[in-house]
Amino acid sequence: MPEGDTVWQTAKRLHDALAGRVLTHSDFRVPQYATVDLTGRTVLNTAPRGKHLLTRFEGGLTLHTHLRMEGAWKVYGTGQAWRGGAGHQIRVVLGADDRMAVGYRLSVLELLRTEDEERVVGHLGPDLLGPDWDPELALANLYADPDRALGEALLDQRNLAGIGNIYKSELCFLLGVTPWLPVGALPEDRAALLPGMAQRLLEVNRARPVRQTTGLPRKDLYVYGRASRPCLRCRTPVRVADQGDGTQERPTYWCPTCQSGPTPAPGTAQRWRERYPRPAR
Questions:
Q1: Which residues lie in coiled coils (predicted)?
Q2: Catalytic-labelled residue, pool 49, 51, 168, 226
Q3: Catalytic annotation on 278?
Q4: What is the pLDDT of residues 229-244, one digit of tens each?
């Protein structure tokens, strides 16, 4: 799934393209909403909530979408070719004047009353990029299950909303602990830093075309996607293994020297070492 900063950027593109305009084109390409026509309604705004997108229309309607792993919203001007994917992957098209917003591969697409938005986003924890951000509540949510692995807890949007697999790995590196460390074992001084650090990472990256966590030129990320490559701090090869609750595991990166704490079973890490062999010297 995309990170919260990516969703924020998507919301901004949709808002800038459609907000305040009257829809002149409305085309839902999913059976449930095949007969829905929003033409003539004014688009009020598009707002992100964690990894969810809420596009609101006059008359008290909201289009709720979620990008999941493969979804995307693209905005095109008059005469521009639509390059977001094949035609059969389009789920909805909303147009106003010279702008067309096209939703591709949206696995979550739901039209609801605006007053019912809490039904789809009310379960989320404090939004790292939202007006409801509350670092103390976010930390309390994480500590509610002290035996849970930190990496899994960070991905749980009920604790705090906006962190994806990239920031999970990068935050654990910056905190100096492995993603498998139980939340309750996180040293108190580092736990105090976690909410602010997470919020700052997303805040500074929401306006960047390329995400960066290192502050180093031409080196964007410390560990994510760097399996078998040297750690930027200590030169130890970065490792990768699956992490998850058994229903949805994700590749997780860490430096065995810079990060202390539990590591996954050897067999799990071995599968990823075979996929990402150490580069020849």
A1: none
A2: 51
A3: no
A4: 999 999 999 999 999 7
Question: What CATH architecture applies to the domain 135-275?
Answer: Orthogonal Bundle (1.10)
pLDDT in tens, 243-273: 976 556 789 999 999 999 999 976 655 454 4
158 is an active site residue: no
Q: Name the active-site residue from 3, 49, 195, 211.
A: 3
Residue 258 · residue 231 · CB < 8 Å: yes
Q: Write down the catalytic residue from 12, 13, 29, 250.
A: 250
Query: From CA 11, how far away is CA 60, in angstroms rounded?
Result: 19
Q: For the whole model, what pTM was predicted? A: 0.90
**Would you call 219 a catalytic residue per the annotation?**
no
Q: Note if 262 is an active site residue.
A: no
Domain residues of the chain, as ranges?
4-122, 135-275
* CATH of 4-122 given 2.60.120.1440, 3.20.190.10, 3.40.50.300, 3.30.360.10: 3.20.190.10
Closest-CA residue to 77 (of 17, 11, 28, 21) = 17
